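Worked example

This section walks through a single chain of length 360. The input is the sequence exactly as stored; nothing has been trimmed or padded.
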Amino acid sequence: MMAYLAEFADTFPLFNVFRYITFRTGAAMITGFIAVFLFGPAIIAALRLRQGRGQPIRADGPQTHFKKAGTPTMGGLMILSGVIVSTLLWADLRNIYVWTVLLVTVGFGAIGFYDDYLKVTKQSHLGFSGRARLALEFVIAALTVGAIVYAGTGSFATSLAFPFIKEVLLNLGLFYVVFGAFVIVGAANAVNLTDGLDGLAIVPIMIAAAAFGLIAYISGNVNFSNYLQIHYVAGTGELSPLCGAVIGAGLGFLWFNAPPAAIFMGDTGSLALGGMTGAIAVATKHEIVLAIIGGLFVIEAMSVIIQVASFKLTGKRVFLMAPIHHHFEKLGWTESQVVVRFWIIAFMLAFIGLSTLKLR
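Given that input, the structure is written out below as tokens.
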């Protein structure tokens, strides 16, 4: 919305700052933080009043988690409110990528909200039907990828780019829609699995948002993309303010989610933010780099897959408990040790992922 003011820069020279994506990204970050920080207490109070006993705690989980009983969930509503308001205020709303990523964010957030609602009202971990949830996620993701392909250029729109190899493109044709949908759904559910400890998921999400905010800015700038020899994707730079909004809203949420958490993100936030990250990776043609930058989420998801497969095939478990953050809790790590060490891993993986921008 504020981007429109740049059209009046000839009359009001000060409005020229609204042309710059960097300025609007910083403003989106500040706006997102202020929105969540100011309205967070009221949202938490309302959710605590409506949810009663809050999110149910796993009976087979670490004993230290039982003291969290009664903590409200659906904190993703706080984050999404800050992200949406800030994005609508600071991003260029004429850009199709902005609306496309918001579509998948809101769509996945709605699925997560319904799942959280069922868990809270039934006081059970059995929320939305797994198959039905995945089916809806794939429909939303496929529509999102279809819109991204429509906004793209020629065969490049359906091609897969590879890090470290600047000249190679693999044109997947219509199968790219399926591939892109898999990336988005996979990212959403990987983040969802990671969200099991206070602050564990939100900081890696902010790290990923910062990394992809930079990637989107460079990919959408013909000069920078040519200099770094990465593929230019016109218009993706406007995803940077959205990423800035996620960082700001995430910081605001972390204020209340820091141990001991006053509220949990819930599926409302984890599915939405994971789907959003996947959609940005698809839009910027950095799907493979997402597996590096979001490597922590990949590790968490793989630990669950390995655990389930091992138990079904051999009757034995590889980990003391999955996802893997619970395994380390069972080994005796404190919750804060797990969280901070996993944050460090997320930082290092993001740096490795960003290094692919130069090593080409």
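What to look for: The chain has a mean pLDDT of 90.
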